[in-house]
Amino acid sequence: MFPNGQTRVMPTSEGIRRAKEIGLDLVLVSANAHPPVAKVIDYGEYSYLEKKKKNEAKKKQHRIEVKEVKFRPNTDQHDYDFKKNHALRFLKEGNKVKATIFFRGREITHPKIGERILRELANDVSEFGNPETQPRMEGRTMTMMIGPRKNLMQSRKQQGGAHGASVAADLSRPQPRA
User: Which terminus of the chain is more exposed, N or C, with fewer CB under 10 A?
Assistant: First the structure.
């Protein structure tokens, strides 16, 4: 196709000659078509615009990271609340949370305590995340994955990411004790 919108079938050598006359490049669009389809364009400008489109798409992309919150079976209530707030912040930012409980020594004989802590955490963060896996033992550790809610992610995209900064500011303020 030529810059003025004309299309025609011609030999490759003639297409290259005409493109050089205009000062543009002959670029193959579809090699498998019969006859092969080529386009007369400024290839440098075309590649620049494609690169720019890729970078724009990359900026709008959000990578979901896995953040880990670690507990012990005898974790105190204040420590639990502190770590729960971290998990809430991670979920609000759109990241997954891996909650892990480490058992040492004879603690391994009480896996129910660890399971109770993980289920309580899943219940406490249920407004912002859903458990993706059930609590399960792997050696001396018990883990559970919690992913962010879909509707939270959609509302965050609509707000343009400004929501995450205000959430972090809200969590950094001291909360009144009940």
Answer: C
